[in-house]
Design brief:
Elements (H helix, E strand, L loop, with lengths): L5 E5 L4 H12 L3 E5 L3 H11 L2 E2 L7 H15 L4 E4 L14 H29 L2 E5 L12 H21 L5 E7 L5 H14 L4 H9 L11 H12 L10 E4 L20 H4 L1
Parallel strand pairs: 1-2, 1-4, 2-3, 4-5, 5-6, 6-7
Helix pairs in contact: 1-8, 3-4, 4-5, 6-7
Length: 271
């Protein structure tokens, strides 16, 4: 069935945002995509027939302009996918003010500014919001303070929408993926290869990074997109404030049981 609702996708030029754009367009949605890098945004728009609106959404004026562009073109705004984000490593004692501010502003303040600008239109449409967080919003790893904090806060920002505006018909949910094969993840795996001296390149890095994932592999962006589009749809009409892990089962794992699984080789032992 063709669905002509109007959806804005941030981070729509690459990765999960791009996969979501493809799926939304394939099902008939009218889509406006945004992102800081004009090239990928315009390329994805040309590929899918979406409308390109490159912008730095960490600025309130840019967020307002994106909403106004969408509503001026289509007359409404039904859905919002918050997929833009960056990752920077570092423990609390290692993070500079600049790195902390950049991660929080991109992953949290930017979505807040866009949500605030879009809210009147989303309420009018009884619309839906889906934020792309991470399993890092639920579990933490070493040297991940800024990223994990920003994603946990994004999760709670969406829950605030559900609680405050659910009675007016607005739904807001969050997906939390684990490692998914995206441009950003590929860059991290390339650094992992350099740091660890793995001989098998990025493929081996993904294998190592997902060794504890019950599905035994990273995700594909299209798999996360399917969850996002479902949450946007009327099929999820009574789902609000939910956190959907799209993680191959990793958050179901009790790490205290790992030493008893002798099928897993330690990294040191395997190389």
């Amino acid at each position: 069935m063709v669905d002509e609702r109007v959806v804005v996708v941030t981070g729509g030029g690459t990765g999960i945002g791009a996969a979501t754009t493809r799926l939304l367009r394939a099902t008939g949605h009218r889509v406006v995509i945004s992102g800081r890098r004009s090239g990928p945004v315009r390329q994805m728009a040309a590929e899918t027939g979406a409308v390109a609106h490159p912008a730095d959404l960490t600025e309130a004026t840019a967020a307002h302009n994106l909403v106004e562009t969408t509503v001026s073109r289509y007359g409404r705004l039904d859905g919002l996918v918050l997929s833009a984000g960056i990752g920077r490593g570092g423990a609390v004692g290692d993070l500079s003010d600049e790195t902390w501010d950049m991660v929080i502003r991109t992953n949290l303040t930017g979505p807040f500014l866009l949500l605030r600008a879009a809210l009147p239109h989303l309420l009018k449409a009884r619309g839906s919001v889906v934020a792309v967080a991470s399993v890092s919003a639920l579990r933490n790893g070493k040297s991940n303070a800024a990223y994990a904090t920003s994603k946990a806060a994004l999760l709670q920002l969406c829950r605030s929408l559900a609680v405050d505006y659910g009675s007016q018909g607005l739904r807001a949910n969050t997906v939390c993926p684990t490692w998914v094969r995206t441009e950003m993840a590929d860059r991290r795996m390339a650094r992992f290869v350099h740091e660890s001296g793995l001989s098998g390149g990025v493929e081996e890095a993904y294998e190592e990074a997902t060794k504890l994932v019950p599905a035994a592999r990273p995700g594909d962006p299209s798999e996360v997109a399917e969850a996002i589009v479902w949450l946007l749809s009327s099929a999820a009409s009574f789902v609000n404030g939910a956190v959907l892990t799209v993680d191959g089962g990793i958050t179901a794992l009790d790490p205290g049981t790992v030493p008893f699984d002798f099928r897993l080789e330690s990294r040191a032992g395997g190389h």
